[in-house]
Amino acid sequence: MNASLPNPFTLPRPVGAVLARLPAYPGSMLLVTAINLALARQLPQDVKDMLQGKQLAIRVRDARLGFDFTWNGRRFAPSSPHADPDLAISANAQDFLLLAQRRQDPDTLFFNRRLVMEGDTELGLVVKNALDALELPVLDPAHWSPRAVLARMPGMASRRARP
User: Deepest in the core among 1, 11, 159, 162, taking most CB within 10 A?
Assistant: First the structure.
């Protein structure tokens, strides 16, 4: 992990109050689209089997946003909010960003109580270990340039090779 981490930051309460008014479904749809593009194909089959039919939630505490989704056997799909999902992971927006950029270790955030996992902790550990094993620069801007995204799409490489 990078030694030069930014100072901890929490979104201002008024920002969280505004974001909390947003409808949940579009945000969950955006999140699962990103997860499906970046991670779904790389998850091991045993992890996919364990996720089957489980209600999952990502809670961004300072933004007062919740993203609810499930694994349907082929991909992640948004779902309606559940009061008690099988696994809920909560942190502030900055901490999720640091995790996605792999600039912060999830264990460090967990032991500092900045990352909270509730529900099926065995499932949470399996997901954490699977994500730790992936070599993917999730938020590296070069990874998400239009050219890089198109290159990863099936059939696009052959179209680009044509004169």
Answer: 11
Domain holding 49, by residue range, is 13-135
In what helix (H) or strand (E) does residue 60 lie, and over which residues does it extend?
strand 55-60
pLDDT tens, 24-64? 888 899 999 988 988 888 889 999 999 999 999 999 999 99
- Return the SS3 of 109: helix
Close Cβ partners of 77 (under 8 Å, ≥ 6 residues apart): 32, 69, 70, 71
Average pLDDT, the chain: 83
**79: enclosing H helix or E strand:** none
Contact by Cβ (8 Å): 104, 1: yes
pLDDT tens-digit series, residues 106-127: 889 989 999 999 999 899 999 8
β partners of residue 67: 58
Give dist(CA 32, CA 79) in Å, integer: 10
How far apart are alpha carbons 96 and 100 in whole angstroms? 6
Under 8 Å between Cβ of 77 and 31: no
Backbone angles phi, psi at 46, to 5 degrees: -65, -35
Within-domain flag for 4 = no
